[in-house]
Automatic annotation (TrEMBL):
It comes from the Eukaryota. The lineage of its organism: Eukaryota, Metazoa, Chordata, Craniata, Vertebrata. Residues 89-141 are annotated as: Disordered. This is Uncharacterized protein LOC117546330 isoform X2.
Length: 367
């Protein structure tokens, strides 16, 4: 079996993406599972193939593009003739099959199976009794996160992964509670939307869990009331997937100067550090798509000779109680906004505010 050339795959992927219409190209970006929004925004067709391969890796990007082309759908001869040979090479690699067998052997035994019996040559596995977690006596089928992102998930399937990052508890417009998890295994990372306060209390960052009875709704894989979450032995996760899982929950928020925010108008979240110079009272304002008025509160932040207006919305207005005029604060996950040629900052659902402690310098004398 000949080795897949990354250079050839990037060239052919470029041709495939060039063959998409504008609408298909937009849908292609929307269909990419786990692909960070910051990489989707304003990416040209020339840049996108390299970013896709860099994010998923060579072989995983091939399978992901196979799934995406089916979902768009885009099945013309050009796409199929270019894509199919790569897919066949990936799916027929014997080392992939051996890796999958090894992974299954290393998994801890399910309830109702006998580890000792598995070690006896020619012994048959003990049949698992029928439980609420099984259908017709069959255990849920364990799926890697990469396979989940490639083909979706059924309620009879489960994933096992490490919770790398957990968001704060959020409230929807209909007053239900939810939060997000960045979960990773040895194959990929995924963002899970989890419903309910109980799960938020029980699930801990850094621990590994089995997630059963998941559902998929649009872009989100969901853990809901009927799902089952149980802690399991630690899952070893490559560093690259840990970083991806973190970014899925908390997007990149580079520390940026007020001057650069005003001049470059970044489209992603930013962090900024400055001195609070003025704080305004809470206002009730009418916003689109909401029946009730929303809390709004603003303050001024200065940095050297630059000053910018910061507006906190809804729940984020509560963070202002930690502010005080004349002190330095770090604002993370802020969204730049431009209105009538004036740039300001808005809060996001990820916004954090931290007081910056000034460090005194001790004078050192030499004898």
């Amino acid at each position: 079996m000949s080795k897949i050339s990354e250079e050839d795959w990037k060239r052919d992927l470029t041709i495939i993406l060039e063959d998409l219409s504008s609408a298909q190209f937009i849908k292609m970006k929307e269909c990419l599972r786990g692909f960070p929004q910051v990489l989707k925004d304003s990416r040209s067709r020339e840049e996108m193939p390299g970013k896709i391969i860099e994010f998923y890796g060579k072989e995983k990007s091939i399978l992901e593009m196979e799934r995406v082309m089916e979902e768009i759908p885009k099945r013309n001869d050009l796409v199929q003739n270019l894509l199919k040979p790569y897919v066949q090479k990936v799916r027929s690699k014997p080392e992939k099959q051996q890796h999958e067998k090894k992974r299954r052997r290393e998994e801890e035994p399910e309830e109702g199976t006998s580890p000792a019996a598995d070690q006896l040559e020619g012994s048959q596995p003990v049949k698992k009794p029928k439980t609420r977690d099984s259908q017709d006596g069959k255990a849920p089928w364990r799926k890697s996160i990469f396979d989940l992102k490639s083909s979706g998930i059924l309620e009879t399937e489960e994933i096992v992964g490490k919770v790398v990052k957990k968001s704060e508890l959020l409230t929807s417009t209909i007053k239900t509670f939810y939060f997000f998890l960045g979960v990773a295994d040895e194959t990929a990372s995924v963002k899970l939307m989890v419903c309910g306060k109980d799960h938020h209390r029980q699930i801990k960052e850094g621990s590994s869990y089995i997630f059963r009875n998941l559902t998929q709704d649009g872009i989100y894989v969901k853990v809901n009331a009927s799902s089952k979450v149980s802690e399991t032995k630690p899952v070893i996760v490559p560093e690259e997937f840990e970083r991806e899982a973190e970014r899925l929950v908390y997007p990149e928020s580079p520390l940026t100067s007020i001057k650069d925010i005003k001049s470059s108008r970044p489209q992603t979240h930013v962090s900024v550090k400055g001195t609070v110079t003025e704080i305004y009272p809470v206002n009730k304002v009418k916003v689109k798509h909401k029946e009730k008025k929303t809390n709004q509160r603003s303050f001024k932040l200065s940095q050297e000779d630059e000053e910018i207006s910061v507006t906190m919305w809804d729940e984020a207005t509560k963070l202002i109680k930690y502010l005080s005029v004349g002190h330095v604060f770090l604002l993370e996950y802020m969204k730049p906004n431009e209105y009538r040629e004036k740039v300001s900052l808005n809060s996001s659902k990820f916004t954090k505010i931290t007081k910056v402690q000034s460090v005194g310098i001790r004078k050192v004398t030499r004898d």
